[in-house]
Amino acid sequence: MAEQTTPIDPAGPPPGDPAPRIPAPAAGDRQVIRDALGVGVAVGLSGFAFGATAAGAGLTVAQACALSLLVFTGASQFALVGALAAGGNPFTAAAGAFFLGARNAFYGLRLSQLLALPRAARPLAAHWVIDESSAVALAQRGRRHTRLGFFVTGATLYVLWNVTTLLGALGAEAIGDTGAWGLDAAGPAVFLALLAPMVRTARERVTAAAAVLLGLGLLPVLPGGVPVLVAALAAPAVLWAEGRRRPRPSEESPR
User: Fold this and answer.
1) Where residue 1 falls among pLDDT bands split at 50, 70, 90?
2) In this structure, what DSSP letter does residue 221 have?
3) What is the DSSP letter of 4?
4) Which residues fall in a compositionally biased region of kind Pro residues (predicted)?
5) Which ranges of 86-142 does DSSP label H, i.e. alpha helix?
6) What percent of the chain stands above pLDDT 70?
7) Of 95 and 108, which is predicted with more confidence?
8) How many whole angstroms separate alpha carbon 166 and alpha carbon 116?
9) Which 8-state DSSP code applies to residue 178?
């Protein structure tokens, strides 16, 4: 007896049968790419401000572009050129930028486990470990989406940041005195805009206020760039004060 087969209805499955669904990875990929591109474009445009600020601090177009290509940590770059613009020693300015950028190493410790990249891809990935790429990657579920979010954010931001750095530096060089146009305030303004979303808890607000007071208070008496380093002491000071306020456990055991 011949085996009977049910013909396939081209109109689709009959009512009551499970309907075919779009695979979840495809839909999820689009969402991750859309979010990553949004973050990369929004932050990458800040390169205009960095290029103008770097030119106003006395850096050449080539030096400003080299910083963006080789350093690629926005807040650290702004800290460096800001200290140089204030007349700080280059070594002091570089030290402040280094300590500010050291946070990326802690991001890398976590991302190295989540991304699990081949050894050959790690140097490129390490260069793109910054606040934005880390935030997008850590917000994903699953290794595929974590990698996708990290690399799309990193690539978008890297390309756009370097292009806008070049354009900003060329524009500032063309108009001459950036201070006359008020562009000398662009660096600090963007720097604060990058840091503001990170200040959420009461402890962070107190730390930020203490750092501002230290930095501004010591600005007239210390060389340029040094107040930034001293302001970093606000974090351990706040933690020490908070520890002193906590009630100590009783030495007597409860009966």
Assistant:
1) very low
2) T
3) P
4) 10-23
5) 90-101, 103-115, 122-127, 131-138
6) 75
7) 108
8) 34
9) T
Tokens coding 81: 């050129």
Distance CA 184, CA 55 (A): 10
The model carries a pTM of 0.65
Residue 177's CB is within 10 A of a number of other CB atoms, namely 10
DSSP string for residues in 181-210: GTGGGHHHHHHHHHHGGG--SHHHHHHHHH
* Residue 75 to residue 155: CA distance in whole angstroms: 18
57's CB contacts (< 8 A; 6+ apart) are 81, 82, 84, 85, 187
pLDDT band for 162, please (50, 70, 90 cuts). very high
Residue 47 CB contacts under 8 Å (≥ 6 apart), including other chains: 68, 160, 161, 162, 163, 164, 165, 167, 168
Give the angle 213-216-219 at the CA atoms, nearest 5°: 140
Residue 77: both structure tokens together: 């770059």
Which has the closest alpha carbon to 125: 161, 103, 155, 157?
155
Taken as a whole, the chain contains a residue count of: 255
* 3-class secondary structure, 174: helix
What's the one-letter identity of residue 38? G
Q: Tell me how far apart the alpha carbons of residues 171 and 236 are, in angstroms, rounded to a whole number.
A: 41
Angle at CA of residue 30, ends 27 and 31, nearest 5°: 90
Cβ-based neighbour number of residue 242 at 10 Å: 13
Q: Let me know the angle formed at the C-alpha of 81 by 78 and 87, rounded to the nearest 5 degrees.
A: 140
